[in-house]
Amino acid sequence: MSSQGNAYEVALFGEFFARDLKAILNRITLHSEYSESMHTREVTFEPIDAQHQRDIGNEPVVLRAKKELTRKDEGWILYSYLKPESVRAHPEATVRPWATCHVVGDALSFAQALGHTRRSQIYKRGYLFRRRTLVIQMFQQEQVDPNTQEPIPAHPDTLWEVEVKTANPIRNTQETPLSQSIDAVLEVQLLMKGLLDLRRQDV
C-alpha cells in the first residue's frame, strides 16, 4: 500500500505507426469529452551530482520544465517524478510519486539555480484529450535544430506515442483511493484494445 504523504500520477503508455493515426484518433475522440492540438517544449534537468548518486545506488530526482506553445502567454510548469512503485505493488499501471509547481518567469534558470543541469530537450506535437479525471496525450517527438534551438517537424513516418494519465496529482486517501485512478486508465486500455496496446512501463 502506498503512503498517504505523497501525491501520485497513474499512467499507461503506448505507441503506434502513423498509418493507424486516423482509426486511433477517431476512437479516442469518441470516448473523450474534449480535445485540442498540443505543441509542448520539454526540457529535462538532473542534479549536478547525478552520476555520483547513481554510483552509490540512489536514483537522482529529475526535473522537467514544460511549456505549452499553442497558447500565448502560457507559463512554464516545473515537475519532478520519483521512481515508479514496484510492479509487485501495481502490476497493471505505472504509479509514481510526482510534484508540480507553476513558475513565473524563466523556469530554466530557476532549475539551474536549484543545482540542476540541463540534460535534454524535446518538442512534442499532436493532440490532447480530456476524459473525466484523465488527460490523454498523443504526439510525435520533434528534434531540435542545434543552430536555432527551434523544433524540426517530425518525419511523417515518425512513431506516435500515447500517454494516458491522471490530469492532477492524486493523494491515496479514502475519498480518492489510487485504485479509482488505476481503474480509470484500465478503462481506456480496454476501450483501445485491438487498436492500441497500452501498458505499464518503468520510466
Automatic annotation (TrEMBL):
Single GO biological process annotation from the record: regulation of transcription by RNA polymerase II
Transcription as UniProt keyword: yes
UniProt keywords, alphabetically: Activator, Nucleus, Transcription, Transcription regulation
The UniProt record lists the keyword Nucleotidyltransferase: no
Subcellular location(s) per record: Nucleus
Matching Pfam families: Med18 (PF09637)
Residues spanning the membrane: none
Gene Ontology molecular function: any one: transcription coregulator activity
GO cellular component, one term: core mediator complex
Classification via Gene3D superfamilies: Hypothetical Protein Pfu-838710-001
InterPro entries: Mediator_Med18 (IPR019095)
Function, in words: Component of the Mediator complex, a coactivator involved in the regulated transcription of nearly all RNA polymerase II-dependent genes. Mediator functions as a bridge to convey information from gene-specific regulatory proteins to the basal RNA polymerase II transcription machinery. Mediator is recruited to promoters by direct interactions with regulatory proteins and serves as a scaffold for the assembly of a functional preinitiation complex with RNA polymerase II and the general transcription factors.
Family: Belongs to the Mediator complex subunit 18 family.
Assembly description: Component of the Mediator complex.
Annotated protein name in UniProt: Mediator of RNA polymerase II transcription subunit 18
Source organism of this protein record: Lentinula edodes
Lineage: Eukaryota, Fungi, Dikarya, Basidiomycota, Agaricomycotina
Gene that specifies this protein: MED18
